[in-house]
Amino acid sequence: MKYYIENFGCQMNEHDMEKVNHLLHSAGHEQAPEMAKADLVIVNTCCIREKAEQKFYSRMGRLRAVKRRSGIMIGVTGCIAQLEKETLIERLPFVNFALGPSNIDRVCEAVEAVSRKEVFLDFSSNGCTGSMYIRPGQTGKEKAVRAYVTIMKGCDNYCSYCIVPYVRGREASRESGDILEEIRELAGRGIKEVILLGQNVNSYNRGREDMSFPELLDAVDEIEDIERVRFVTSHPKDLSPALIERFGRLRSLCEQIHLPFQSGSDTVLRLMNRGYTVREYRAKVELLKKTCPEIAISSDCIVGFPGEEETDFEETMQLVEDVRFDGLFSFCFSPRKYTAAAGLSDRVPEEVSLERLHRLQAVQKAITQQGHQRLEGKRVEVLVEGVSKNSRDELAGRTRSNSIVNFKGNRDLVGKLVEVDVVRGYANSARGANPVQIKEA
Q1: Computed over its alpha carbons, how large is the radius of gyration of the chain?
Q2: Cα 331 to chain centroid, rounded
Q3: Residue 189 maps to which CATH number?
Q4: 177 with 105, same domain?
Q5: Tens digit of pLDDT for each residue in 61-78?
Q6: Are residues 322 and 248 in the same domain?
Q7: pLDDT digit string (tens) for 349-376?
Q8: Domain contains 127
């Protein structure tokens, strides 16, 4: 059977589909280069914002027409499947199977069941499910340079706007020995960079006798062939001095962290149930920069949360100006089913939220570009990931601080660590020249 996967959402969704691809490939199925050549289409879903959910249902309308013409098999996985459960099939009766994010390890069972003309559904989500332990192999033609590794799932924080605890479940951590074994396997395959995944990595192994997250980073750092380590996502209230200290000491830990602040107003943070104040957030940022002056900090921000006044938004703008984030993912508030914030009545008018968002994004765009321009004239280490998205004649890679650098070079450099001269900084990337390999892959 030929299958095609369409993925929406975050790095965790991306990694989930790497696992699904691995399972289907291992079962003898073949990945189709495009949807038109597939017998099976799997749509992996995200519902973190209303727009993502709307995009999914719009996509399913088009798939219904494709199924009428060709009779393809359709599967839905991910967060919308978990959120809607059986009602998804009632709304989209042409879907053949649906799996929650904790149940993607059963995708081959689902395909077999549909082949017998059965509908297959699984939305169980308790504890460390089999999906956490799938280790994707190398199924593509191009050699991978970086890899995701799941270390935990779920979240216990229940921020008032967030759907994650309802679709990804409560926190559950994977045994450190299994994680380290997987990373050693990846190193043996030539992987140079690993990204450790969890909804809140700072909570890894909380309440268990296994090693803490900072201790896990220590252990990964001892795996010689792994050159770089990153992680997402880190909750500010749980960012410990012990974890911050690792940024100044560990060889492999990249000088980069994603630390969502969501709002620069204490009033709004309380409504969001974030568990920290702006002062506490600023103090942790200050300690990060003191410990590791080169560190790049990116973040998330929600604009127009119910009850947000103009003065609250100005406090958010001040935080952005003061911290000068290297990157910022910003969105208007989107009410999500089951969350506490969905019931708040003091809604900010849509036009006000959009105007605030545009102001914020304009300021951040300038800050990000200035950060890339500060690289001009410097020689930086880049891990070459592949051909540039901007030009087939160029290569692209990332600095340790996660800036994208495009440059001309031989394709033999893919998978290698090189040094390049940064000649120009742009809004979203930098341009490099004169690449010289510094380490073998």
Answers
A1: 22
A2: 16
A3: 3.30.750.210
A4: no
A5: 999 999 999 999 999 999
A6: no
A7: 999 999 999 999 999 999 999 999 999 9
A8: no
